Amino acid sequence: MNWITNYVRPKINSMLGRRDIPDNLWIKDPESGEMVFHKDLEENQYVVPSSGHHMKISAKERLRFFFDGGQYETLENPKAVTDPLRFRDEKRYLDRLRDARAKTGMDDAVLNGVGQVEGVPLVATVQDFSFIGGSLGIAAGEAIIKGLETALERRLPLVLFAASGGARMQEGIFSLMQLPRTTVAVDRLKEAGLPYIVVLTNPTTGGVTASYAMLGDVHIAEPGALIGFAGPRVIEQTIREKLPEGFQRSEYLMAHGMVDMVVSRLELRDKISRLLRLMLKMPAPGEAALAA
Amino acid sequence: MYNYLDFEKPVADLEAKILELKKLGEQGEAVDVHEEISRLEKRSVDALRDVYKALTPWQKVQVARHPDRPHCIDYLSALFTDFTPLAGDRAYGEDHAMVGGLARFRGEPVAILGQEKGSDTASRLKHNFGSVRPEGYRKAVRIMELADRYQLPVISLVDTAGAYPGIGAEERGQAEAIARSTSACLGLRVPMISVIIGEGGSGGAIAIAAANRVLILEHAIYSVISPEGAASILWKDTTRSRDAATSMKITAQDLLELGIVDAIIPEPLGGAHRGAEAVIEATGDAIARSLEELQTSGKDLREERRDKFLRIGRSV
C-alpha cells in the first residue's frame, strides 16, 4: 500500500455529494451558529442541547410537550369578528390572515388545551408567535378569555404561555381593547381563588405585557426571552443611548423584580406542577404516588 | 395670535389682515377700517368653518396635539374646587406626568387622575410631555384604591402620546404598572368616568380609561399606536402617517360608531384651543350627566364596567 492508495478523500467533497438532503433537517442555533439535527432538537423540546438556547415553538408543540403523555383536550376558539376596520396597508389584512392560517394551521394566534401536568389538571393557554407575531386582536383576545372562563367554570388553574410582539395593529383600537377585556377575565379567575401562572417566552412585548402577561400570581420566564413593554428599537430612538447588556432579557427582568424565576423549558412541567400543588394544597408528588 | 396648523392657512391669512387693519385703526389713520374688518371677520369665520367641517383624520391628529389646546391642569382648575394633589407611588418616586388627587366636582368630593403635557418648555419638561412612567401608574392605583375605600367617584382626563419608553421605565416595570392600573379601574366599585381630551395613546391611555363611561372631545383621538408608529411598522414608510391615521379609525366619530366611546363632547369652532372656557364647561356638563346616570342606575358598577368591556368588539 503506498501513499497514493492510502489517500483519504477531502471532507468537503463528501459534503457536496449530499446536496439532496432537505435543508430543514439541520437547524442552526441562532446563538452559537452550531448546526443541530432536527430529531435531537425535537427530543429536547427545541432547546439547543449544547448552548441551552430556547427556540420558538408552535402552540401545538407547546401543548404536546407540556401535558402528561402529550394528551389534552383542545378548546374550540369562539367565533369572532374578523377585520373590523376592513384594513389594508401594503396588503389586505384578510389576505394576511389567510396566509397565516395556511402557514400555521391555526385560526388565530391562541390555542387552549385542558389536560394534566404531572397529575395536576389545568387549562393551558398558548400564544403562537408564528401567527402574525402572536399579535393580539379580537379573535386572540376572545380565545384567551375563553381559556380563562373555562378554567373558572371547571375550577381549574390556568397556565398561560405568552409569546407576542404586542397589538394586532390591523385591528386598531379593538386590539387595544383586548387589554382591559383579558384583564377582566384574569381578575375574575383570581378572585375565584384559582391560580394563574404566566410563562413568559421569547418574545413577549407591547400590549400583551401591559395586561394579562404581567398579572400572574407567579411569573416564570424561559431563559434568554425578550420581555418588555416598549421594543428595544423604540427605546433607543427615544433616548438615543445604547441599551445595557442583556436589557429586557429574562435574567435582567428577574434581577429587576419582574419575574419570580427563570426556568428551562425542560423543567417547566416539574416546577409548575409543584407550584400548583402548593397553591392548591394538593399532596407533594412523592406523597401522591405513595397514597395511590 | 394662534399657533396655526398648515391647513389653517386661509384662516391665518385673513386673521393676519384683520390684525393689521385693527392696528391701523388704532393708529388713527384716516381710513374707515371697521367695515373692512367686519367683512374680513365674517370671511375668516366662514373659512374656519369650511376647514373644520371637513377635517381629515390626520388633521384631527394635529388639532388633538395642538400646543394651545387646553390640557389636564386647565380642566382641573376650572371644573374642580378644593383640588388637593396627592403625590408619589410609595415605592420609588413622584411622576408629574400623572396628576392626581382629591377634589370637589360641583360640590361633591371625587378622586381625579389625568395626564398633563405641559404648556411651555419648562412645564413640558416637568410633566415629561404627558408620558407617564411606572411611578405615575402606581400613583394612579393608589388614588383609585383610596377612592374605592372612601366611595368617591373617579374622574380621569386622558391626554398622552403614550407611556414613556425608557430604560428606567422598563426596569421598574412599565408594563406591569399599566396592567395593574387598568385592572384597578376595572375593579372599582365606585363610578368611573374618563374623558379623552386630546390624545389617547395606547396602553398609556387605557391604564386610566377602563371606565364605566368613556367620553371624548370632538377632535380628540384614541389609538393603539400613533399614526407615525403605524406608518413605520405597517407601511415601513414614515411618510404614510396620513394613510395610517385614516385606516386606523382613531377619530372621535369613528370610535363612537365602533362602540369604543359612549359620547362625543362638541368643541368650539376651530377646536378646543379657540374656546377653552366653552369646551371645559361642556366637558363639566357631560361629566355631571354621566355621573348622575351612574349614581342613580342602581347597578353593580364594577360588573357593569367589566361586562361593558367584554361586549366591545363582539359585534361590529
Q: List the total number of helices of chain A.
A: 10
Percent strand of chain B equals 15-25%
Gyration radius over CA of chain A: 22 Å
Shape assignment of chain A: globular
The arrangement of helices and strands of chain A along the chain is HEEHHEHEEHEHEEEHHEHH
- The value of Rg of chain B in angstroms is 21 Å
Catalytic activity (chain B): N(6)-carboxybiotinyl-L-lysyl-[protein] + acetyl-CoA = N(6)-biotinyl-L-lysyl-[protein] + malonyl-CoA
Main location (chain B): cytoplasm
GO molecular function (chain B): acetyl-CoA carboxylase activity
Enzyme class (chain B): transferase
Summarize the helices and strands and which ones pair or pack:
The complex is a heterodimer of chains A (292) and B (316).
Chain A: H1 11-16, E1 26-28, E2 35-37, H2 38-43, H3 59-66, E3 73-75, H4 93-104, E4 110-117, E5 120-127, H5 138-153, E6 158-164, H6 172-191, E7 196-205, E8 218-221, E9 227-228, H7 232-239, H8 250-255, E10 261-262, H9 268-279, H10 285-291
Parallel strand pairs in A: 5-6, 6-7, 7-8, 7-9, 8-10
Antiparallel strand pairs in A: 1-2, 3-4, 4-5
Helix pairs in contact in A: 5-6
Chain B: H1 9-26, H2 34-53, H3 57-64, H4 72-79, E1 80-85, E2 98-105, E3 108-115, H5 121-126, H6 134-149, E4 154-160, H7 167-171, H8 174-187, E5 192-201, H9 202-206, E6 213-217, E7 221-223, H10 227-235, H11 241-247, H12 252-257, E8 263-265, H13 276-295, H14 301-311
Parallel strand pairs in B: 3-4, 4-5, 5-6, 5-7, 6-8
Antiparallel strand pairs in B: 1-2, 2-3
Helix pairs in contact in B: 1-2, 4-13, 6-8, 10-11
